[in-house]
Write a structure and sequence with these properties.
The protein folds into three domains: 5-103, Tetrapyrrole methylase, N-terminal domain (Cobalt-precorrin-4 Transmethylase, domain 1); 106-206, Tetrapyrrole methylase, C-terminal domain (Methyltransferase, Cobalt-precorrin-4 Transmethylase, Domain 2, 2-Layer Sandwich); 223-403, Vaccinia Virus protein VP39 (Rossmann fold, 3-Layer(aba) Sandwich). It contains 13 helices and 19 strands. It is of the alpha/beta class. The chain has helices at residues 19-26, 35-38, 55-65, 85-92, 105-113, 131-139, 154-163, 189-192, 236-246, 263-268, 284-297, 331-341, 355-367; strands at residues 5-9, 30-33, 47-50, 71-75, 97-100, 121-124, 144-147, 170-175, 183-187, 201-206, 253-257, 276-281, 302-306, 321-324, 347-352, 371-377, 380-384, 389-393, 397-403.
Length: 405
């Protein structure tokens, strides 16, 4: 017996529907979808429900109606490609839905442009804020296809590009794909920001082929790659070990507190592409250096916060991971504030060269019920001599990692 809910992708227009999909729609007791999609089937004698922002209500409605009705949910494009199909499969159970896919707007868009898209990065701004990922991809030289929404349309996107020094990126705005008034506009961001476009659009962003891409990024980069005050930077080897203790992941919310030059945040960007990086520093000159480093390495999902600690943390989203590279006499208060906001299973890593702060950090984390992992690392670097090299020792650093059970 077929599942009670069928999710059908309509491609970019009803012309893309197969005969099987059409017959399934015509047999529905209840037709669900956006108003624009449902209106194509006004001749059918069935109950209708328009999808709005209340997805919980939609799920409740479908669960109530499933036992005694044949339900068809209409989606644009492909239901599982940035569509509602994944949400409904999770909400109702994969065994309760049958998905009939179709061609996506991205596939149609690149067909119109006559270009391959197997290497294109796709980012959705539809109900999401993934501008950080978008800027990261452009900085790396990738072509990016962007699903927009009425709030985050091509004009808004053009503003973001100009503000982040991507004025040389070509925008291909594909409006109302599959309709009689379909339109393709190639334009630069400075012009696009003053224009008006249809809410139904896909934007393809193409970096200038001769644009200088960001420098290569890897864990433990040499200190001279960063703008920083002499000596006031988490040293390369310590940085690499600290990052390993943090166990970062793609969608993490990361706080870097007392960030100095921001070197830890920059390298955290290797692992956090679709998450958010918050870099907090109190000194104005270091804020300037952090912003220079952010621009140098194209870390578009990194937000720089100029604030004292711990006061500057109140408005930040709750973190998955926290790195504390500074704090001085306020270290205990900073740890307590961060721990109170840390998500379940989160990790706090503290670096210090001070014996008093070693004791303060371990005691604070233990009092909060964290599991403690502590190491001391000391690096000796080769220094040239007339006939050979000698080893010059750097200050020992304690790395204290606390994980919430």
């Amino acid at each position: 017996m077929a599942p009670p809910v069928t999710i059908i992708g309509m491609g970019v227009s009803p012309d893309d529907l197969t005969s099987r999909q059409r017959s399934t729609i015509e047999a529905a007791d209840i037709l669900v979808g956006g108003k624009r999609l449902i209106d194509h089937f006004g001749h059918l004698a069935c109950q209708r429900r328009v999808i709005d922002r209340d997805l919980k209500g939609l799920g409740d409605f479908l669960q109530e109606k499933m036992p005694n009705n044949t339900i068809v949910v209409l989606t644009s494009g492909d239901p599982l490609f940035f569509g509602i199909g994944a949400f409904l499969a999770r909400r109702l159970g994969a065994g309760q839905v049958h998905i009939l896919p179709n061609i996506s707007a991205v596939a149609v868009g690149f067909a119109r442009l006559g270009e391959p898209w197997q290497d294109v990065r796709v980012v959705s701004l539809h109900g999401r804020n993934h501008t950080g990922e978008l800027l990261r991809r452009l900085a790396g030289g990738d072509t990016v296809a962007v699903y927009t929404d009425p709030t985050h349309g091509p004009e808004w996107l053009a503003d973001i590009l100009v503000e982040n020094a991507f004025s040389d990126v070509t925008m291909c705005v594909l409006e109302r794909l599959g309709m009689e008034d379909e339109k393709i506009t190639r334009i630069m961001p400075a012009e696009a920001r003053a224009m008006t476009f249809s809410d139904l659009n896909l934007v393809v962003l193409k970096p200038d082929p001769i644009r200088q891409t960001v420098p290569a990024l890897f864990p433990g980069m040499p200190d001279h790659r960063f703008a920083h005050e002499k000596g006031l930077i988490t040293k390369a080897e310590v940085r690499a070990v600290s990052l390993s203790r943090l166990r970062l992941f793609d969608r993490a919310i990361f706080w870097d507190l007392g960030a100095g030059s921001g070197s830890v945040s920059i390298e955290a960007g290797l692992f956090i592409i679709r998450g958010e990086i918050y870099t907090v520093e109190q000194k104005a000159e270091r804020i300037r250096q952090i912003r220079e480093n952010r621009s140098r390495f194209g870390i578009g999902n990194m937000k720089v916060i100029h604030s004292h600690l711990p006061e500057g943390l109140a408005r930040l989203p709750d973190p998955d991971r926290v790195f504390i590279g500074g704090g001085g006499k306020d270290l205990t208060d900073i740890i307590q504030m961060a721990a109170n906001r840390l998500k379940p299973g989160g990790i706090i890593v503290v670096n210090t060269v001070l014996i008093a702060n070693l004791t303060a950090a371990t005691q604070a984390l233990e009092d909060l019920g964290f599991n403690i992992d502590m190491i001391q690392i000391q690096v000796s670097r080769a220094t040239p001599m007339p006939f050979s090299h000698r080893l010059e020792a750097a200050n020992p650093v304690w790395i204290i990692a606390g994980s919430r059970p």
